[in-house]
Write a structure and sequence with these properties.
The chain is α/β, with parallel strands linked by helices. The protein folds into 2 domains: 2-217 and 405-491, Ribonuclease Z/Hydroxyacylglutathione hydrolase-like (Metallo-beta-lactamase, Chain A); 221-399, Rossmann fold (3-Layer(aba) Sandwich), CATH 3.40.50. Helix content is 32%, strand content 19%. The protein is built from 15 helices and 22 strands. Helix 4 (86-116) runs antiparallel to helix 5 (131-138) and helix 4 (86-116) runs antiparallel to helix 8. The model has no long low-confidence stretch (mean pLDDT 94). The structure holds zinc ion. Residues 61, 63, 165, 186 line the site of zinc ion (ZN).
């Protein structure tokens, strides 16, 4: 039972794990590296295996850092099936098409810049893939995994279970002749808006677990809701625009659901709500479609024929022309737009038109990395540069920190508590964070090891001294830096 990781090893992005179970080779996730040039360079590496020789690909969930390199895998020769749950397939299509579009647009812009700068076209890296590659990839999807139902894939028994992270997210139990292995994918925050808790795992021999937030605990959900409601009430009183930058998957739906509940309860007046993100709009349709896997109040609303993601004053903004027209819209309104860290997307022109007005409120519901536009605003910049213009920051800025879709330390330890006595392998985390988590797993009587980058590990083998593969040096990072790295894992955009 061997594993070789080509992403999410000693880092939080680019999840890709090659399992060798008996004679079969199964790839779990095929994600893109995100977050800065050095990491993103790795997306251009050739696969360290022949894609044509894989027996199967299985996906845990649809975030870009778990599915983003699939079209590349197909381009380079993979012709087999890609297994996942039905909602993961639906969301993955949205995520991959968006990724192809952003890459194509980015490439065209880079070409223009390069030509003006006298650089030849050949020096500009082309998109990793285009829309046609995504369509070819989607044709290989077999969205037939169901929580709790065992499927035989390449001769291996595979049972997906609810991971509670985003819609459709699963962890995988794989039963091979050598032993029982669990791949966690990303695990959910047990206190989040829409997801039911992860199903406690069965006893296994080896367990590969994500560790994004393995060194911290999230704020209680009730407190987050109080903060959000308080910020909205104050904002409505100033009678201006209320801007909410949001990630398109999970966060946008949690915000819509919460807004609807607050308005229905009379806590927030029924002012117009504009959902100004085509990707969030498509993802919200999937949340509606597959809402029967979400928390009971969502299921009950759906059964009663209601749409729990649609505040009565919701307007969906399909085109960018209509988005521009919103700039002239008079009166108070809530505008939800991407992207989450304000580094691009439609939120930028809303900020340009409203950030300088004292009547505007900016409600931040996601972590902002210090170098992002959002990070600069949170840090108290007087002016920020948006679309080539200096814009004064006069809006009231609210920061609500508790909306995480990832398990925190308590959640991760709770997850491990029913798994028997497996060898625990840590992925999808910063080395410093994992280093804090290794002894906590040790206190539960289990051996924990960080998964090395690219190196094959025997999942039932001895592991490493202190849980650290050779060459891993622990350098304490600033809290802002490691929180920023973890936050990248939240967005998928
Ligand atoms: Zn995720």
């Amino acid at each position: 039972m061997q594993m070789q990781s080509f992403g999410a090893a000693l880092t939080v992005t680019g999840s890709m794990h090659l399992l060798t179970l008996g004679s079969k080779r199964i790839l779990v996730d095929c994600g893109m590296f995100q977050g800065g040039h050095d990491l993103e360079e790795r997306n251009y590496e050739t696969f360290p295996f022949d894609p044509a020789e894989l027996d199967a690909v299985i996906l845990t969930h649809a975030h870009l850092d778990h599915v983003g390199r699939l079209p590349l895998l197909v381009r380079r020769g993979y012709k087999g099936a890609i297994y996942c749950t039905p909602p993961t397939a639906a969301l993955a299509e949205t995520v991959l098409l968006d990724s192809a579009r952003l890459q194509t647009e980015g490439y065209k812009m880079d070409l223009r810049h390069a030509r003006r700068g006298g650089v030849t076209d050949e020096q500009v890296p082309p998109p990793l893939y285009e829309e046609a590659d995504v369509h070819q990839t989607m044709a290989l999807f077999r969205p037939r995994l169901e929580f709790g139902k065992t499927e035989t894939i390449a001769g291996i028994k595979v049972t997906p279970q609810r991971a509670g992270h985003i819609l459709g997210s699963a962890y995988l139990l794989l039963e091979s002749p050598d032993g029982r292995l669990l791949m966690s994918g990303d695990l959910g925050n047990r206190e989040s808006g829409l997801q039911e808790d992860f199903v406690p795992p069965p006893e296994v021999d080896a367990l590969v677990i994500e560790t994004t937030y393995a060194n911290r605990t999230h704020k209680p959900w009730a407190e987050t809701l109080r903060e959000f409601s308080g910020a909205l009430q104050q904002s409505v009183r100033s009678n201006g625009k209320i801007l909410i930058p949001s990630f398109a998957i999970e966060r946008a739906q949690v915000i819509l659901y919460t807004l609807k509940n607050l308005m229905d309860a009379g806590e927030v007046p029924r002012i117009p709500v504009f959902l100004d993100s085509p990707m969030a709009t498509r993802a919200t349709n999937e949340y509606f479609e597959f809402g029967d896997e979400l928390i009971p109040p969502v299921r009950e609303a759906l059964q009663a024929g209601e749409d729990p993601f649609r505040p009565s004053t919701l307007h969906v903004v399909p085109t960018s022309a209509e988005s521009q027209r919103l700039n002239k819209y008079d009166g108070p309104a809530i505008i939800i737009a991407g992207n989450g860290m304000m580094t691009g997307g439609r939120i930028q022109h809303h900020l340009k038109h409203h950030l300088w007005k004292p009547s505007t409120s900016l409600i931040i519901v996601s972590y902002q990395s210090p170098s992002s536009l959002g990070g600069k605003i949170v840090a108290g910049a007087d002016t920020v540069r948006i679309m080539g213009e200096d814009i004064a920051v006069r809006a009231h800025v609210y920061t609500i920190g508790g909306f995480s879709a990832h398990a925190d330390q308590d959640d991760l330890l709770a997850f491990l508590s029913t798994a028997g006595n497996p060898h625990v392998w840590l992925v999808h985390g910063e080395p410093e964070v994992m280093n804090d988590f290794v002894p906590l797993v040790g206190q539960k009587g289990m051996k924990a090891d960080m998964v090395p980058d690219r190196q094959t590990v025997d999942l039932l083998g001895a592991g490493f001294e202190n849980g650290r593969p050779a060459g891993v040096v622990i350098e304490p990072k600033s809290p802002a830096e490691s929180a920023g790295n973890a936050a990248r894992a939240e967005g998928g955009e």
